[in-house]
Amino acid sequence: TLAALGFDLDDDGFFDDEDDELLPVVAVVGRPNVGKSTLVNRIIGRREAVVEDVPGVTRDRVTYKAEWSGHRFLLVDTGGWEREAKGMAAQVAAQAERAMNEADAVMFVLDATVGATDADEDVVKVLRGTKKPVLLIANKVDDSRGEADAAMLWSLGLGEPQAVSSLQGRGMGDMLDNLIAILPDEGSRVAEPRGPRRIALLGKPNVGKSSLLNQLAGEQRVVVDSVAGTTVDPVDELVEIAGTTWRFVDTAGIRKRVHEASGHEYYASLRTKAALDKAEVAVVLLEADQPMAEQDTRILSMVVESGRALVLAFNKWDLMDDERRKYLEREIERDLHQVSWAPRVNISARTGRHTDKLVPALHKALEGWETRVPTSRLNAFLATLVQSHPHPVRGGKQPRILFGTQATTKPPTFVLFTTGFLEAGYRRFIERRLREEFGFDGTPVRVNLRVRE
Ligand code: GDP
Ligand code: GDP
């Protein structure tokens, strides 16, 4: 949902109407004072209370419903950085990046009377890489003499500058026509499927997937056809566990493998990938009584790569003895370090032992997966971290972190704006500390860099 994407919906109470979630989303980005608020107010046709810019406090985004010639869309005013803060340019660029990830189109606003500043250039770099449509707004063109200023902005390589005056309304009609033209149709935004959370049950043949599904589902299973009407294969099953319904995706694959236990590896991994695509969280079953196999590692790597939440289930616990248990601990340390953050449950699909621990683990993993760290908190954390553990000096240089932002959730993905490349060890250190501080149990965490030359 939009809320999960970080739009602050509850506060402005905007999404009572279910349809709103399907409206295309337009993010308005640009540095302070170019006229973003004035533009937004002009488009929505009312004067909103001015939001105070308290230094050090980030004003979070505000979403408005807008309409132009019968087309409805959501306008997200992405205000909110510390006005005089150092690294402001990086902040604006970070914000453009975040907006870009979450919106269907971006309105990038510049002050035509000033032209493109360094901060604007940073945003341009971010926007050039996107496949999302961008509308370049040359604001403050109050009369025809300003048209030449606007035309200068062709050089940014973002297409035709839309010369407007947000203050006076000049050029608004044409600009909005062009905006509507680049927007996806209302309702074409892919709605997050509501309802049951989606689980992929994964693991090598014979690890106990269908046994576990049977154990969890008992008689309470509902098979969901792949596409209503054109069913070839029943693919998903709704299973109620302790009062909550979960959707197990691609269970046809699980059931089939009972008969094709030695099925071809290549198809097995295609199936795993397809299930991961549909799922939000993966339960990877491992055989507690057997050493980890290469196939287990491969499946785990696929989960990490897919960015899904993860719960590890050591199955066949009824076959464990003390000797084996000793080895298992060692194996976990050696073979599972890449997923050391995943909650683990020790179960027996045969006896039903501890299968009730699975649901709390799933909730925990999904919670980590959807966690969003507010930008102000993240930067306070980074400042402390960098002060106590600065990046080592390399070749006389010491890269600095200027600013960070969490670009997305599902999985949590951070973007750090830096003055140089951070070495791998330092990035792992940052990830580790992020986990300690904000608790991302059960989810991969990504840390990306934007290095300023
Ligand atoms: P924001 O920080 O980007 O949201 O910018 P604001 O909307 O607060 O506008 C900054 C200043 O520019 C205000 O004084 C506005 O009145 C002024 N401004 C905004 N749009 C225009 C315009 O089209 N023409 C002129 N002359 N001034 C404008
Ligand atoms: P799948 O190929 O992953 O779906 O695995 P199955 O559910 O078909 O299980 C493969 C074999 O392992 C079957 O003979 C099961 O009875 C057995 N099995 C599954 N779970 C357990 C368990 O927890 N303990 C024991 N002892 N055997 C199990």
UniProtKB/TrEMBL annotation:
SMART domains: AAA. InterPro entries: AAA+_ATPase, G_ENGA, GTP-bd, GTPase_Der, KH_dom-like, KH_dom-like_a/b, P-loop_NTPase, Small_GTP-bd. GTP 1 binds at residues 30-37, 77-81, 139-142. GTP 2 binds at residues 203-210, 250-254, 315-318. It comes from the Bacteria. Keywords: GTP-binding, Nucleotide-binding, Repeat, Ribosome biogenesis. Residues 24-187, 197-370 form the EngA-type G domain. Pfam families: KH_dom-like, MMR_HSR1. GTPase that plays an essential role in the late steps of ribosome biogenesis. Associates with the 50S ribosomal subunit. NCBIfam families: GTPase_EngA, PRK03003.1, small_GTP. Belongs to the TRAFAC class TrmE-Era-EngA-EngB-Septin-like GTPase superfamily. EngA (Der) GTPase family. This is GTPase Der. It comes from Longivirga aurantiaca.
